[in-house]
Amino acid sequence: MSDPNQQPGGFGPSPYGPGQPQQPGYGYPASPAQPPQPAYGYPAAGAPAQPQQPAYGYPAAGAPAPQPASYPAPPSPYAAPGYAAPRPSNGMGTAGLVLGIIGVVCNVIMVLWFVGMILGVLAIIFGAVGRGKANRGEATNKGAATAGLVMGIIATVLLPALILLLFAGAMGAASGI
């Protein structure tokens, strides 16, 4: 069943005759004389030191820290080449929204109604300035500025008027009118 002339690759007898050296590229490749690969784990006692690959994690004490590769920032799609686009200034609209919310909360508590009215006036001012910036394209938070304006109006006008009506109603009911 087995052919005595069969080569190790299983391709039949060698076309170069028995005892002839193998041609390059055919059969099993000859293993060149290479130094032995280092084994995993701890080196054997008395073995020569192998060069170490850089380790992962933090560098050793006193070793210089590797510098990360820095890449340039991608260009802005809204600016001319070489010039950075101006950043939106959303502070006024956000401040109007925050002050409006705090003003409404202070008015609902009723103990801090005067503070709520002051914060409501500031919310109206900041909200109006923020809407103006958003309309000019200097800010991107037109919705927050509008909400701050509305909350400022509620804190300044509507809630104090409601409180005044409730107080007048309570005083009228107490006097018997």
Automatic annotation (TrEMBL):
Pfam families: DUF4190 (PF13828)
Domain DUF4190: 92-159
Keyword Transmembrane helix: yes
Residue stretches of biased makeup (Low complexity): 13-31, 39-61
Key words of the record: Membrane, Transmembrane, Transmembrane helix
Residue ranges of the TM segments: 97-129, 149-174
Entries under InterPro entries matching the protein: DUF4190 (IPR025241)
Positions of the UniProt region annotated as Disordered: 1-61
Protein name: DUF4190 domain-containing protein
